[in-house]
Amino acid sequence: xxxxxxxxxxxxxxxxxxTETGKAWDEASGQYTRELDAAVAKLEAGIANLMEPEIGxxxxxxxxxxxxxxxxxxxxxxxxxxxxxxxxxxxxxxxSPNMLAVAEEKAARLNLDAEWVLADTARLPESLxxxxxxxxxxxxxxxxxxxxxxxxxxxxxxxxPGGHLFVFEGHPLDWVWDETAPTLQIHPEYGGYxxxxxxxxxxxxxxxxxxxxxxxxxWSKKHERQWTLGEVVTxxxxxxxxxxxxxxxxxxYWPAHTLLPWHEMKxxxxxxxxxxxxxxx
Length: 281
Known about the structure:
The protein is of the alpha/beta class. It has one domain (2-277): Rossmann fold (3-Layer(aba) Sandwich), CATH 3.40.50.150. It is built from eight helices and ten strands.
């Protein structure tokens, strides 16, 4: 893992790193293609690919329907799952055209209407502004953003007055732990909870992308950045959003810390829900 302290001082720097990461996700889309049949079958059976900490909130917010935007939607399974918990319409954005192709295929097989937009979350098109009752994001999305304030400005711009931003994300405390250790210890490369460096590498965890998926020429470089819970909440609040819910949960959204017993790990937060409302109607 290559860690840099480069200063991302302008949109050009951010666009460059996001574009490089997007290329890596284009390559990783092969895994989503391999899992496409299983994802379609699950959705066809009416099983939402959502987790307990978020389902109750989403069902409440969508009790009368609503237009939902899912930014960084990847292969679209979570996007289409939002229809199962009350969304009237869903729109997904992603920086990877290959990921959106997978999402389109799922919607086509299920005969579901969905809009798919190729876009970097740091440059969401104005055509999406003030259109949605809920802007939904999470489960490993924020770590790919190089500037949390630019992220907040873009996603909040897409919420219509009276609507909500909904974030269900991995808790940033998990970033600090060494997942390969049999006890809780600080990861030797990540540098701690307040680390501000950009982490760049060309490897995917085998628990996420199968080892035999690697392209002949090797993976493209991707870039991650840690954001503390305080930084995320502050960035959203500074957009004029009203924080309604901030809750922390022991559930994981992906298999991490597999060497540690659950009765110990459930004492720590591994995910959080952030719901913020845009003032207005």
